[in-house]
């Protein structure tokens, strides 16, 4: 019997020098032999801790055992019992903070590559183009409206359709997918090969998706329920309103929110200009302000759009970076310059309305704050200028107020997030449920999916009770 490997099988990747100049996927995925070998590292624990870290409760040891036995159809069937977007999750989930964090093997070496195995099973199934059998809805099936076609809304829709409800998703943009379509770049999550196929599969099941519909303008929630005949509503509108720093110069040409920058590139195909008529000017040097995954996405996108120098400007140090380790590692490999312990104080003008430089002050870390992270403090007299043409602000985003402000009886908190029960996702308005970033603030794809799943179960219980009444 072979000794158990304490290290993961490496993920095949494009060469950093090559990939920094294209939008093709960076991680290439396991082949069959590598996937089976990685699956064989699983200890098949009697009490699998990995499951406790999965927001949608995937039977992880179950599907890994199927891969080990080369029963790939069985593996994806187990995953899909809990996760309706496995090809997405296998790519963008922060497994190191969730399922893999709890893997017993990780105590002695590296945890099992759960996310990589999930991606392998999902990609293999997707390549087969299996026919999807549409759901036959009962003539008197109850109707549910979903607002927002992001991860929370798509998950909720899929679960409810499978339970026999007629589901219509209303999406404000011209393409479904939410952050999967407009936020996460092509090189991390291919749109045509993965996102569009996952959404098309939901439509084949029988989920209706209406795009270019802004709920709060075209319809209110009350109108959907009282005039359009929907028995329940799920709000999954995400966190699409960018935060800014409120420093001088933020209104100059060449300053973007990360939201606009990535939306122009991903959803509006600026990376294929002039084939698509969406210009996105980056110039020679770009500063991205922030240290999260969105900042890494923006920095790596700027490189691929032709910038020669790309800086991550973050006010804390390496250990405090909120981005996934893998994303920061990939950014460094590609040549992004990390200007850590620096905080922007002004965006400098060239006198003609365009960005000339980013003025920063050096920081040092003091005592830990309430969250346990050490608080940064400015070093007096340490200001300096970073010469750049473009500044992308990636310090987070909040909820768009349009749905909440047009829905009487639905409570929001001081940050504008909808107040909803943690377990049922029920809001203060009867028949209306909410989940994902609109409730929690900006978080991860899989947490939003977990909320969509909980909401679907709660909506099912609510509508059964309503029908019986």
Structure overview:
The structure is a single chain. By secondary structure, the chain is an alpha/beta fold. The chain has 16 helices and 16 strands. It has a five-stranded parallel sheet. The longest helix is centred in the last third of the chain and has 24 residues, at about 445-469. The model has no long low-confidence stretch (mean pLDDT about 95).
- Terminal Cα span: 62 Å
The low-confidence runs, each spanning 5 or more residues with pLDDT under 50, are none
Strand fraction equals 15-25%
User: Mean of residue pLDDT?
Assistant: 94
Spatial arrangement of strands, main beta sheet:
3-2-1-4-16
Q: Quick one: overall form?
A: globular
Portion in helices: 25-40%
The beta-strand count equals 16
Give me the number of helical elements. 16
Q: Class by helix and strand content?
A: alpha/beta
Largest sheet: 5 strands, parallel
**Cα radius of gyration in angstroms:** 23 Å
Which SSEs are present, and which pair or pack?
Blueprint: H1 16-19, H2 32-39, H3 60-68, H4 72-80, H5 86-92, H6 114-128, E1 143-147, H7 151-162, E2 166-170, H8 179-182, H9 191-205, E3 208-210, H10 221-226, E4 232-235, E5 241-242, E6 255-257, H11 258-266, E7 285-289, H12 293-304, E8 309-314, H13 325-334, E9 337-340, E10 342-349, E11 355-368, E12 374-378, E13 384-387, E14 390-393, E15 397-398, H14 402-405, E16 432-434, H15 437-440, H16 445-468
Parallel strand pairs: 1-2, 1-4, 2-3, 4-16, 6-14, 7-8, 7-14, 8-9
Antiparallel strand pairs: 5-15, 10-11, 11-12, 11-13
């Amino acid at each position: 019997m072979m000794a158990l490997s304490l290290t993961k099988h490496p993920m095949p990747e494009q060469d950093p020098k090559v990939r920094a100049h294209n939008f093709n996927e960076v991680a290439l995925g396991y082949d069959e032999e590598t996937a089976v070998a990685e699956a064989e590292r699983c200890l098949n624990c009697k009490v699998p801790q990995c499951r406790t870290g999965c927001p949608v409760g995937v039977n992880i040891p179950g599907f890994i055992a199927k891969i080990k036995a080369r029963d790939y159809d069985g593996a994806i069937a187990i995953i899909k019992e809990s996760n309706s977007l496995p090809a997405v999750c296998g790519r963008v989930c922060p497994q190191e903070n969730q399922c893999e964090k709890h893997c017993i093997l990780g105590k002695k070496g590296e945890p099992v590559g759960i996310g990589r195995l999930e991606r392998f099973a999902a990609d293999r199934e997707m390549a087969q183009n299996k026919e999807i059998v549409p759901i036959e809805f009962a003539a008197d099936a109850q109707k549910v409206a979903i607002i927002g076609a992001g991860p929370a809304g798509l998950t909720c829709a899929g679960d409810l359709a499978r339970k026999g409800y007629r589901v219509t998703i209303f999406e404000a943009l011209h393409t479904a997918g939410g952050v999967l379509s407009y936020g996460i770049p092509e090189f991390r999550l291919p749109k045509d090969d993965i996102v569009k196929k996952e959404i098309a599969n939901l439509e084949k099941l029988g989920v209706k998706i209406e795009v270019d519909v802004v709920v709060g303008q075209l319809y209110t929630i009350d109108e959907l329920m009282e005039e359009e005949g929907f028995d329940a509503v799920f709000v999954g509108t995400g966190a699409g309103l960018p935060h800014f720093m409120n420093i001088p110069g933020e209104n100059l040409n060449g300053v973007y929110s990360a939201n606009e920058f990535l939306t122009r590139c991903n959803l509006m195909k600026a990376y294929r200009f002039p084939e698509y008529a969406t210009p996105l000017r980056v110039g020679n040097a770009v500063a991205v302000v922030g240290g999260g995954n969105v900042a890494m996405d923006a920095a790596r996108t700027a490189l691929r759009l032709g910038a020669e120098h790309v800086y991550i400007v973050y006010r804390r140090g390496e250990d405090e970076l909120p981005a996934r380790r893998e994303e920061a590692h990939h950014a460094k490999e590609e040549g992004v310059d990390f200007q850590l312990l620096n905080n922007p104080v002004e965006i400098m003008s060239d006198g003609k309305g365009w960005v000339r430089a980013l003025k920063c002050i050096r920081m040092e870390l003091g005592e830990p704050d309430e969250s346990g992270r050490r608080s940064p403090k400015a070093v007096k007299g340490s200001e300096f200028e970073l010469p750049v043409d473009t500044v992308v602000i990636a310090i987070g985003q909040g909820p768009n107020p349009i749905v909440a402000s047009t829905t009487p009886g639905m409570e929001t908190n001081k940050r504008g997030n909808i107040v909803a029960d943690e377990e049922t996702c029920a809001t203060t308005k009867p028949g209306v449920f909410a989940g994902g970033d609109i409730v929690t603030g900006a978080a991860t794809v899989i947490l939003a999916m977990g909320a969509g799943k909980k909401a679907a179960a709660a909506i099912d219980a609510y509508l059964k009770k309503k029908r019986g009444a």
